[in-house]
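Field log, afternoon session.

UNIT: design team B
ACTIVITY: writing a sequence onto a fixed backbone
BACKBONE:
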C-alpha cells in the first residue's frame, strides 16, 4: 500500500506540472474544433 500511495502522489505532481502547460493547449484545441464545426 505504501508504494502505491507514493505512486499516486508522484502522478498527482506530474499531472499538476502537465496541467499547467497543456490545459491552455487543450482549450485551444477544443476552440479550434468548435470553430471548424
Amino acid at each position: 500500500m505504501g508504494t502505491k500511495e507514493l505512486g499516486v502522489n508522484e502522478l498527482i505532481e506530474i499531472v499538476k506540472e502537465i496541467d499547467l502547460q497543456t490545459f491552455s493547449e487543450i482549450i485551444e484545441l477544443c476552440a479550434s474544433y468548435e470553430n471548424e464545426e
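LOG NOTE: The chain has a mean pLDDT of 80.
NEXT ACTIVITY: expression trials, pending approval
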